[in-house]
Design a protein that fits this description.
With 336 residues, the chain is an alpha/beta fold. It contains 13 helices and twelve strands. It has a domain of 233 residues: Rossmann fold (3-Layer(aba) Sandwich), CATH 3.40.50.720.
């Protein structure tokens, strides 16, 4: 049996579906029952028989603060895909991210001790990467640098990774995947599901870039790593490095919207002053901080060579990914 945490999210749900398609027995964790029907909706984007696959799921309600709840979830389980996480770059969510991402991962790993669990895949993020290799590129050797300033999200993922490596040292077979910004369908109002909505809403963008990846690729490669028993390593999962401006215009062009305008970096820096003075009155201003400004104004090339060489697999082009998922987004907008 396989356990997938965060199974109601855009990644966890796709991993569940892909495993079910292989005939695996899947136990899926959830926190709120009102999110379960969203999973069936997400399934419909990737299969013509969503209800058939949905009915095969063994659902388990999990409280990550309750070790007994987690021990019950992993009972009889041999493999775990840990996708559950809080994703936010707003300072107000700092404590929740630390509790959910770090403590939740720690508790789950404790529950795996002396259990039937043999394999553990942890979904981290490229947000933990620091530094460039000799070719001026970020890769798996770009280790987190404690001397640098990081977002609370990056910190939460880094310290979660440390818990996973601890479990590895104690004998658990683990693999860590570090996806870029995940492009997927469903959950349009939460986490990376808000990507299209935010790009269409704002006529402005930033000078930097980041790396993107299709949710189907993340699922496929995470599962392949577990199947091929590639453990005690980390793998960056990205398709392409793309400018924020280019991504925004690519999405907006599908709706006939004007191209975005770049916000100059000096304007962003001035914004930090207003954030300091008025952040208490307008909480959204707190998003304008030094670390977030660096994130949207920096352009680092991130490499996917390790995973492509390891699995001999290629990634979907981002243009193809956008067409596929944006089509679902458009259809859901019309139904809303």
């Amino acid at each position: 049996m396989i356990l997938v945490t965060g199974a109601t999210g855009i990644l966890g749900s796709v991993i569940v579906l892909d495993l079910l398609k292989q005939g695996k027995t899947v136990r899926a964790s959830y926190r709120s029952e009102n999110r379960l029907q969203e999973v069936k909706k997400i399934f419909s984007y990737y299969t013509d028989t969503p209800a058939d696959f949905f009915d095969q799921i063994i659902w388990v309600k999990v409280d990550f603060e309750d070790i007994a709840s987690l021990e019950n979830a992993v009972d009889g389980v041999e493999e775990v895909y840990h996708c559950a996480a809080k994703v936010s770059f707003h300072p107000k969510d700092k404590l929740e991210m630390y509790e959910t991402n770090i403590e939740g991962t720690k508790q789950l790993l404790y529950a795996c001790q002396n259990s039937s669990v043999k394999k553990f895949c942890f979904v981290s993020s490229i947000a933990v990467l620091d530094g460039l290799n000799e070719d001026g590129i970020m890769d798996e050797s770009s280790d987190y640098n404690h001397k640098l300033e990081h977002s609370a999200y990056a910190k939460s993922k880094h310290f979660s990774e440390m818990e996973v490596w601890r479990a590895s040292a104690e004998g658990l077979k683990v693999v860590i995947v570090n996806p870029g910004v995940i492009i997927g369908s469903g959950n349009w109002k939460s986490s990376s599901g808000t990507l299209f909505g935010s790009l269409l809403k704002s006529p402005f963008s930033f000078s930097g870039s980041t790396a993107y990846v299709d949710v189907r690729d993340v699922s496929k490669m995470a599962i392949l790593l577990m199947e091929k028993e590639v453990f005690d390593q980390r793998f960056i999962l990205i398709s392409e490095n793309i400018k924020f401006e280019e991504m925004a215009n690519l999405v907006r062009s599908k709706f006939g919207l004007n191209k975005v305008k770049i916000i100059p970096n000096f304007i962003l820096k001035i914004g930090t002053i207003f954030a300091y003075l008025l952040g208490w009155l307008f909480p959204m201003l707190k998003m304008i901080n030094k670390r977030n400004i660096e994130a949207v104004s920096t352009s680092n090339i991130i490499s996917n060579k390790k995973i492509t060489h390891q699995l001999n697999e290629s990634f979907l082009p981002i243009s193809e990914s956008i067409d596929f998922h944006l089509n679902h987004y458009k259809k859901d907008l019309k139904k809303a």
